């Protein structure tokens, strides 16, 4: 009989395929096993404690080990551990959460629809958009525009929206009818002598040229994160959204605001939509919605979208879409309690109070010799690294910085050569300084080694 591996690390290597990981390299180096978490900290299997500088995956808003969320899950598990929302069925937590989200939306929304992840929410948004075009007798209006370096998920459809090469390579993506316009990253995309205002105008002009070249009658929707997350924390140039939105309205193109990272306080307002004065027709939500304690995501759609979808479902006799676990009662109960915590503790106000320190320390890193740009807003930011010795190996410097941060007790995330910071919203000013002290020490160590 074959002897099975004993340690958790060995069993992981033997049996698990990991996301965003070099599978062969993983076989050699093995995993970091995280055993527990409390507040802004997590602890690995050796007992070493780390600041979780990315809030898990941009998502644990209220921190780790929040007992109120554990208790909310336990209460609901005892009462109704599972039910669905198919075929005229419902349950209390999904009704309450739908009402909460529609009423707290920063722009008028008609209905909430539940899914299980940001990827599923954006994938479903695409289906709703196509369904609506057919309902309106416009079968040619199916093309969707997103942006280079945008991130919208990893299903076949949502990964096609995502504008990052590694999400397309060897997956035969993007699929047809998905178009990409330029990234609004001023430093890398500006022309010589071009002001930020002129750059924003050029971004808008390129979008309009793409629409006209393809035919406005064929463009159904535009997807955009208020602030780009996984593409490198790209904060839009001043005036960008004020120029883009009128173009969408001019050509009757739906606007989908991907709030998966920005939503629920991250940018200093409850939604990034508020921060930038957006008027989306659809909002996609996830991550901080439940602080990722349980899988939960949602779409909010306005009446312009819902009305046509409802009419088409009546014509067909059903809305033929849904997920077994969508609107799961336990996940919905946790999300409701999570939103209560965010509101009761005024975590959005807390972000506004602490953000100046966060951004001051972030931009101070921008003075380091290895850093070519620092950028951020609210409680999300990044530093982009460069060094002549590693210029021909993209991502190598980010990997070195990531290792140096981890060794010193800070978990960040290397997005190529960009180091991202997106801590739990509960982080205190002292903890902000602790996090950036570690980052400074890590950069110093990398610079010395080079």
Automatic annotation (TrEMBL):
PROSITE patterns: AA_TRANSFER_CLASS_3 (PS00600). It comes from the Bacteria. GO terms for molecular function: transaminase activity. Its cofactor is pyridoxal 5'-phosphate. Pfam families: Aminotran_3. CDD domains: OAT_like (cd00610). The keyword Ubl conjugation does not apply. Keywords: Aminotransferase, Pyridoxal phosphate, Transferase. Belongs to the class-III pyridoxal-phosphate-dependent aminotransferase family. PANTHER family: ADENOSYLMETHIONINE-8-AMINO-7-OXONONANOATE AMINOTRANSFERASE. This is Aspartate aminotransferase family protein.
